[in-house]
Design brief:
Elements lengths: L2 E10 L7 E11 L4 E5 L6 H7 L8 E6 L2 E2 L7 H7 E4 L12 H11 L4 H14 L4 H4 L9 H13 L5 E5 L7 H18 L2 E5 L3 H7 L2 E6 L2 E6 L1 H4 L3 H6 L6 H12 L10 H13 L4
Parallel strand pairs: 3-8, 3-9, 6-7, 7-8
Antiparallel strand pairs: 1-2, 1-4, 4-5, 9-10
Helix pairs in contact: 3-4, 3-6, 4-6
């Protein structure tokens, strides 16, 4: 499974007074089993891009390939693509609608025409993957749960479709720090156990640095930067000019780098920064 995007362009309200170019010549690849983090300020084209990846939006020009199949040439059945590509919008808990957790998660598999045994197996496995206990939640109303648990149920409903690609738009938005950490760990577990491509958008640079194999920086509808977290976050000045930042740990070590002549660190996480500082303090210095 892979994703290739080639010369993607999308224009809102073409030919109208409010015509807006949302995507402009966007090209990139996502390798099988990898995690792609996408960052960019509001209006940079992130959400529009995500909706192209499972065919919710057709491009003005350019192509999207899912596992080598062009999904933008008009011949592809979008229902087949949406079985492969699961898209979880920001605040997905607002899309819950069934009276019980079991029914909500099982809605998608049921619409695939699966038999009851397969539906039940998928519901149970999805509940496990999002870190909940089947017997504890199956008969509960999702509307009576906490925000973090609602989000888990909503994500479980998407992974019950057994996608090969999972796209998450701001999966930790609006959560308290504890729920934030739990959801991030859950997302990583889903990726690792299902062996899928994971694409996620976040404004949290520490999350992007921790989770991603590759980072895509969107600005003005274009790909402004692309590379590993270390490569992307080495461009602190460029990111700042785009209204973005670097992970807090990187900010800390950059301050130390500038003030302590023989200290050098490119840490992106607090643990890495702490290890580099400890190594410096314990090491020989002339």
């Amino acid at each position: 499974m892979s994703i290739s995007v080639r010369n993607l362009r999308y224009v809102y309200n073409p030919g109208m007074p409010g015509e807006t170019v949302a995507l402009d010549d966007v090209s990139f690849d996502v390798a099988d089993g990898s995690i792609l983090g996408i960052i960019g300020h509001t209006g940079s084209g992130k959400s529009t891009l995500l909706q192209h990846l499972n065919g919710l939006i057709a491009p003005t020009s350019g192509d999207v390939y899912i596992d080598g199949q062009c999904i933008t040439d008009g011949s592809t059945k979008m229902v087949d693509i949406r079985r492969k590509v699961g898209l979880v919008f920001q605040y997905p808990e607002y899309q819950l609608f069934e009276e019980t957790v079991q029914k909500d998660i099982g809605f998608g598999p049921k619409n695939l025409g699966l038999d009851e045994a397969e539906i039940d197996a998928r519901v149970r496995e999805s509940i496990r993957l999002v870190g909940l206990e089947y017997d504890d939640v199956k008969d509960r109303s999702p509307f009576e749960m906490s925000g973090g648990m609602k989000r888990r149920v909503a994500i479980a409903g998407v992974i019950a479709m057994n996608p090969k690609i999972l796209i998450l738009d701001e999966p930790t938005a609006g959560l308290d720090p504890s729920a934030h950490r739990d959801i991030l760990a859950m997302v990583k577990r889903i990726h690792d156990e299902m062996g899928i491509i994971l694409i996620f958008v976040s404004h949290n640079m520490a999350d992007i640095a921790e989770m991603s194999d590759k980072v895509l920086v969107m600005s003005g509808g274009k790909v402004a930067l692309e590379g590993t977290p270390a490569e992307v976050f080495s461009h602190g000045k460029m990111l700042a000019d785009m209204g973005l930042g670097v992970p807090p740990a990187r900010e800390i070590v950059e301050i130390i780098n500038s003030r302590v002549p023989d200290f050098r660190s490119e840490a992106l996480s607090i643990d890495e920064a702490a290890e580099d500082i400890k190594r410096y303090l314990e090491g020989p210095r002339g």
